[in-house]
Each structure stands twice: as structure tokens, then as C-alpha cells.
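Q: What structure does this chain adopt?
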Amino acid sequence: MGKRVLFAITVMLFVCLPLFAIDLRIGPNIIMTPSNPAPGTNMEFKCRLISYGGDSKNVQVFVQMGGTTIYNHLYPVLYDGNQKIISVNWTATQGTHTVKFHIASVDPTTPDSTTGNNVAMKTFTVIPAITVGKKLGTVTKPGPMTGATTYTPTPNFQLDPCFANRNGTTDLTVDNFHVTKVGDTQWKFTFQIKNSGPRCIKTLVYEVENMGHMVKQQRLGNLTNAGWLLQGSNDVYLVEKTVSADTSPPFWTENGHTYTMFTVTVDTYSDNAETNESNNSTTDNLQLQ
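A:
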């Protein structure tokens, strides 16, 4: 009789165990708007919170600016795969600051199997706005023989066409995203980044993920270069890369075929002030078999 009871308890424990380990994640990216704030600016910080592998209960999340807590919220349930976008506002003060999104605790009945991805941080600097101007007018210059001569100087410099919109906003969009197989060992992806606003772009970070797994991250452009990555409205930049394929990518089966999904996101660290952040990502499905 004792062996039967022990066997029944063992079966019940096995059935109650989750089929997959729960992985509660935050970040890794924090979207900051605006990207170049001045003191007194109302800033917004956004970060993704998601539970993989099962439902998470009683998830406590803190957001701190330096040593001050500016957000404290308890999420009763985070359903498997359904992401929450945490949005926090803060009035900028001069200096260098670090904003930190942190998963503080979770219900012990739905433990987090991996805690290394429970913190997302971003460091930024707030400086006063700088006004640059140059006035050209009528001046008096001593003449070589006849004394004082009055003249109007002609500027001998060429103004950077991007200078006028240096403090403005823009709207970056990504489209025409396609992923193809190159043999059995490589993936090739292409997409276009379009600048739909007047502000010019010098640097840009993009990320390509395969159902949550990073495939490629790259910074385009260079702040020290004289040229611009995207110059003014409607300028388009084409990205084309070939990378090593995952030997066992995540997949799903539909109508007898196997598929996996890729996501590309541009301006992942919100380095550029934009009027619309919702069009910075797009997806493409790849048929594996």
C-alpha cells in the first residue's frame, strides 16, 4: 500500500512540474525620448517586460534614476509570450544619469529560471542647449593709402546643409526586410532604413533577432566622419548582410512546413530623436523545410 501511495505522489509531482522553465526578461533595450534632452525636458523611458516558457505571477518591477525609485509596480500575471511595455516619465536635470529597469521579485510558485536578464540600464547626459550664431555686417578696415575704407565682407565658408536641423526630430522607418537561406550554413538579410524627417543622421544601431535570439547587431556610421549616414528627408540606406545560420533555430510547423521568424529593429538605443518609434521594427518569416 505504501509503494502505491508513493508512486501516486511521484506521478502528481511530475504532472504539476512545468513542461518548460520560465524565463522572465526585461529589456535589453531602453528607448529614451528625446535622445538629446536639455534640463527641464519631460523625458520618457520605455522598456519591454516579457515571460517566456510559461505564466509568471506577482512580478515586482522597479525603475530607478540613480538612487531614486521613480516607478514601482506589481504585475499580478504575465502570460506566456505576451509582452508589457513599461513607460516611465522623468523631468531631466543637468548631469550624467543612469536609469535602471529591474525585476525585483516573482512569485515562488512560478520561479524565474534565468536571472541574468532581469536588469536593463542606460546611461545618458543632460546638458544645456547651445545656441550658435554668426553675424556678418558692415565693418571698417584701414586702407593702405587713403585711410579708412568701409566695405561689407563676403563669408568664405559653406554652411553644412544639416546644420539648420541639428536640434530637430526625424522619423526613421524600416521596410523591405527579407531573409533567405544561403546553402545550409548561412542566412542573408536585406532591409532599407528611410529617414522621413529633416534631421540628418550620423550613427545608427540595428539589431536582427531570430524569435528572441540575437543574430546580428551593428552600429552604422561614425560621429567623427565628415559625411552623414542619412542626409535629410527621404534619404534611404540599404543594409545587406550574410551571417552564420543557427544550426537549431526555434521554429513552428504550419501546413506541413517548418518556419522561423526574424525581427529587425533600427535605432535600438534611441540615439536619434524621433516623432514615431512604432515603425522602427518589422518581421519576416523564413521557410526552413
